[in-house]
Structures are given as C-alpha cells and as structure tokens.
Amino acid sequence: MKEREPRILVATEVVSDANLVRRILSNEFDDVRLCTDPDAGVADFESVRPDVLVLAFNTLEEAERYYLGLYRLGPHVHAIVHRTVVLCTMDDLRRTYDLCRREVFDDTVLFWPATNDVTRLPMAVHQAQRLAIAGGQDAARELVGQARNLATLDSSVDALRTHGEARVVDASARLRSAQQHIDAAFAGFSQRILRSAGELGIGEGEARGMGLEVDRLHTEEIRPTLDGASGAVEPIRQWLGSIGETLAPQLESARAFRRHAADIRPTILVIDDDEMQHRLLGQALADLPVDLVFASSGTEGLGVLRRRRPDLILMDYELPDVSGVECTQRIRATEGLAATPVIMVTAHRERPVVVASLRAGAPDFIIKPFDRTTLAAKLARTLGITPP
C-alpha cells in the first residue's frame, strides 16, 4: 500500500522565507502549506494537522515563542501527532541542539543563510515524516503497561481455584445433608404409615405394602438421582484441580513477558517550573526503578506528551503559563492519555484546590514539602512496582 503523503506546515513571519522553504520542499513533497500570520498560528495548525512542522523564523526566540504559543493557546495541539524541524543560524546552533535534546524540538537544520545546508532540510523532513506517520507511539511502553496488568495473574488463578474448591466442598456438604434428611424423611414416612394404618382405615398387610412401595421409591428412584447429583460435583472438583496444569504454558508465557518487561522502566513526567523541585524529586526517587522526564511549564509538558506516553504524571498546581488544572483537563480530553494517572503536586490544602483538581481528573495529591519514603511508596503503588 502506498504511504500517505505527509502534511507539512512551514511557519514564519516572513513571506519570502516561507516561499523559499516551500520551494525547496516542493521538489520532494506535494502537500506543503504556509503559516505567515502569527495570530492565525493555532487555527492554521489545527486546520492543517501537520505531520511535520518546519519553524523557519529568523531567530530561535521567535521559533520558541511561536511554538510554545501553540500549546498555550491551542487546547488540541498536543493531541496532534507531529514532529518539529527548526531552522537555525550558526550562532543559535548550540542552543537549538540543547532544545532538541530536551525534546522541545525534534530536529534542527543549520539553514540561515539559505546556502548553508539546503539539502539537509528535505532529509530532516523525511526522517520526521517516518516518525510522525508511524504515530509517534512508544509501543514498548504500551506492552509494559499490559505486562504489569498480568502481575496478579498467578494469584488470581490461585484465588479462583481456591474459591471454586470451597464452593464445591460446600455444595457436596449440602448434598450430603440433603440426602440424610431425605433418607430420614422416607424412613419416618414408612413408619408413620404402619402406625397409622387403623386411622387410615386400611389393614396391616396393606399398610406394610404401602411402606414397602415408599421404600422402593426412595431406594430405586430418589436415591439414585441424589447420588447422580453428588457425582456430578466430582468432575468439577477434578477440573479445578487441573487448572494450574492446564494453564501452565500460558502462565509461564505471562511470567516471561513480565520478566522482559521489567527491563523497561516506567516513565514519570514531572511538570513543574521549580528547578529545586526537579532536584528534590530526582533525589527522592533515586532508588525507585523509574525514568524521570522534566518539563518546566504546562506548554512544555504538553509538548513532551505529543511524543511520549508516560506511565505517570506529577503535575504542579501552579504553573507560569497553562495552569496544572487546565493542563490536566487537556490530558484527560486526549485519546490515548485519558487513562494516564495524574497526581497533583501542591503546597495548598484548601478545599477549592482539592475540588478543582478532582474535577480536572487528578484524584490524588502530593503535598509540599513531601516525605521521601511516603512519596516513593505512593508512586510505586500507583505504578504497580516494588517500592525501594
């Protein structure tokens, strides 16, 4: 099947620069759009839904301002899977590299002046296209999440078998009790017939015959039925006993899956503008088998989420741009992220803070200053891993 042609959006405030970049890319790509009006940035982005965004601004500051503005003003930008290529000058090359390393941008091309690395631009777009069209999903981490769900499979099977065996034992006991009561009832009925022959107006011989018929009915018809019911329980008991053996290959596959998945550490995204908090969290969670990814603002955090799917998000309540509540609401409204646990980190205990966080979709809290042991235990419990 032919691969879909990528959608490319070139963003800059200079129309001539936009046309230059489009002319270079149009030699290899058919769908190249332009955005030269900063006020229309969000509308253009959400309309085009680009696979690749090329930032062709004259300065790196302008590129940062435009891109972070998309996340600040566009509630759906983070949900559109895309890759970014930023064009830079020699003076900005080091800073651009640092931004790409921090995953603010994905790739950089030394472009200005335009003769520097023109052929590198189409190649960067090709590379970005492959990642963007693939969906940018980290399939390995999705599998790890499923593997963690298998962690309780062994105990669940054992609990099911134990519960089933208990029910079988209870059913067998009830059947035995029923048999005893029925045996006693039939024996008593035969005796009452003999004792009450006169009252019934029948002779002793006839009464004895009726008693024998009651005994026959009990022995030949009622008792075999009860014995059959008791016997029907035994195959269930045997089946329950064989569950472990029957499921042994599947259980061993699940164990092997978990062992391999254990090599991939869960990722925690920390969205907090306080560098001191980054260091404190890094120290507090140093013994926990997790990888930490840090973002210093709501827009930066949403940018990280377009290319990563963390297992847990620690969200600062007070952020300098998009608030922690709004950021959480956007995450909850995004397919693929809605189930990601979000824990609000705040120094406030007031009821409005709690209510706003709960309504946004953050059902748990970490109160600053936090206790390291309690914090590690809480996060380990949420992630389903063994605490240090």
Task: Report a brief summary of the structure.
With 388 residues, the chain is an alpha/beta fold.
Proportion of strand residues: 5-15%
Helix and strand pattern: EHEHEHEHEHHHHHHEHEHEHEHEH
Our measurement of the CA-to-CA distance between the termini, rounded to an integer number of angstroms, reads 49 Å
Instruction: Count every helix, treating DSSP H or I runs of 4 or more residues as helices.
Output: 15
Structural class: alpha/beta
CATH topology of the largest domain: Rossmann fold
Write the CATH homologous superfamily of the largest domain.
Answer: Response regulator
CATH architecture annotation of the largest domain: 3-Layer(aba) Sandwich
- The neighbouring-strand order within the major sheet is 2-1-3-4-5
Total number of beta strands: 10
Characterize the structure shown:
There is one protein chain. α3 (60-73) packs across α12 (298-305). β1, α1 and β2 (32-35) form a beta-alpha-beta unit. The relative contact order is 0.09. The chain has helices at residues 15-25, 41-48, 60-73, 93-101, 120-133, 139-149, 153-195, 197-200, 204-246, 248-261, 275-284, 298-305, 324-332, 351-360, 372-383; strands at 8-11, 32-35, 52-55, 83-88, 107-110, 267-271, 291-295, 312-316, 342-346, 364-367. The chain has a 5-stranded parallel sheet with strand order 2-1-3-4-5, with helices on both faces. It has 388 residues and is α/β, with parallel strands linked by helices. The model is unreliable at 134-139 (pLDDT under 50). It is 57% helix and 12% strand. The protein has 3 domains: 8-136, Rossmann fold; 150-258; 267-383, 3-Layer(aba) Sandwich (Rossmann fold), CATH 3.40.50.
